[in-house]
Amino acid sequence: MANWKIQDISPPKKIEKNIEEPKKRVKRKSTRLPGWFKIGVLPLLILVVVLVGAVHVFFARANVTLWPEVRQVKLLEPIVAEVGRAKLDKEEQIIPAHTLTEEKSATRLFPASSSTIKENRASGTIRVFNAYTTTPQNLLVQTRFVSEEGKLFRTPVKVAIPGKTQKQGKMVPGFVDIEIIAAEAGEDYNIGASNFSLPGLSGSALFTVIYGESLGPMTGGSERTVSVVSEDDIEKAKDSLIEELTGNVIEDLLSRVPESMVATKDSLAINVTEAESLIGAGAELDQFNVSVSLVATLFMFPKSDIDTLVNTFLARELEDGERIFEDKNEINFQQIKLSKDTKTANVDLFIGATIYQYLDPTELKIKLRGKSKTEAESILASYNIFNQTELALWPFWLSSLPGSIDRLEIQVIVD
């Protein structure tokens, strides 16, 4: 038989597991962005960043303003203008010319500006009696007669008073009518009828027997200020009318100049054919007439020929690195002297020009691009041909210049 061993079978030990109580879950603070921030503010911030970047990349720019050193040049060059000439002779400085001619005449009334005191003496007729003797009594030139009012008059000529005569058994004084003139001007001597004595006979027996009586009032005495035409008045009137007509003819002629030609009031020659006044100096008038006639000849020159001459003359004045600022050129014509046939004129051509130091803008842009603002200002300061420089960046917070020369702008201001 099989050897069976019977063993007690013990039940398995119960393994006790150390089961810990579950830990309480700690509620962590959420780091997620609020919905309103994600929906509203965040996209806006992103947009701002994108825009700022775009501005820096695509729109940033720099403006450089330069004020170069300048100098003024004034030239007076003699040229010859010939009517009918075909083309410019630059060497001989002979330029073709065309002319416009116009005549003007006018008569104007001008005021007299001078004045004088006009004096008139009163005068009249008196009858002078001689009751002293039968022989004539002679009165010298300038013999004095005094009226009852004490006004003094004189005889302008020598006078003989007839002697007294006997009529019908009585002695009748001789007499003569004479003119007397007041010793002074003025209305005070315009007196009425009066008796006159001769002060030269005072104290003698003749004083009461030689005397005068006026036949009427003394008149014509006055003292007044009157206008007088002077030589200066006449000359000023002529000059004024010549100037007026010249202004009118300049306006008329310049309005007729073709666009291809150049002419100014200084290229006008005036020939005054008449300037006179029918009133002479000294006339006592408030106003007087002056007549003037003139012939005006306007010389015109081809613009291209004038430009050629001006550039030729100014080129002689340029130094290294200089250019002409053509916007400020001043050109006019002086001292025009016409030939007798008005076909040729000697003209002084005045040229006023501003010359400045030139710098190639592209060359400067290449030096400045991509540089910091401080470096760029240092580069600009290194040029001694500028009186002043100015650097402006956009947007304002940029600290360096754009790298593209297309976004660098150079402005040159010539004062």
Explain what this protein looks like in three dimensions.
By secondary structure, the protein is an alpha+beta fold. Among the domains are: 72-112 and 230-357, no CATH class; 119-225, no CATH class. The chain starts with 34 loop residues before the first helix and ends with a strand. The chain is built from 5 helices and 22 strands. Helix content is 19%, strand content 41%. The strands form 5 sheets. Strands 2, 3, 15, 16, 17, 18, 19 and 20 form an 8-stranded mixed sheet that branches. It has helices at 35-59, 231-254, 303-315, 361-368, 373-381, and strands at 61-68, 70-83, 94-111, 114-130, 137-139, 144-147, 152-154, 159-161, 165-167, 170-172, 174-185, 195-197, 210-214, 222-228, 261-262, 268-276, 287-302, 322-324, 330-338, 344-357, 386-394, 408-412. Mean pLDDT is 87; it is low at 1-10.
Give a quick precis of the structure.
By secondary structure, this protein is α+β, with helices and mostly antiparallel strands. It is 19% helix and 41% strand. The chain has helices spanning 35-59, 231-254, 303-315, 361-368, 373-381, and strands spanning 61-68, 70-83, 94-111, 114-130, 137-139, 144-147, 152-154, 159-161, 165-167, 170-172, 174-185, 195-197, 210-214, 222-228, 261-262, 268-276, 287-302, 322-324, 330-338, 344-357, 386-394, 408-412.
